[in-house]
Amino acid sequence: MEAIERRRAAADRVRTAEHAVERLKEGLAEFGVKLPSLRIDPVSCAGDEPAPLVDLGRCNIDTALRLCAVLAEKESGHDG
Fold this sequence. Notes:
This protein is mainly α. It has helices at 2-29, 61-79; strands spanning 39-40, 54-55. 59% of the residues lie in helices and 5% in strands. It is elongated.
C-alpha cells in the first residue's frame, strides 16, 4: 500500500512539473519568447521517488536578448 501511495505522489509531482512547463511556454509566448529546450528533465524523473526539475534549456542569443528585454519591460513597469 505504501508503494502505491509513493508512486501516486511521484506521478502527481511529474504532472505538476508538466503543468509548470506548459504555463511557462504559454506565458513566455505572450511576450514573443520561445525557449526551444524547455522541458522536464527526464533524469530527475527517474527512480521510485522522482523530484522533477524543469530544464529551461538552451537558447540562441536572440532569444536570450528578447527575454532580457521582456524582463526589463516588466521591471520598469513596476517602478512607475
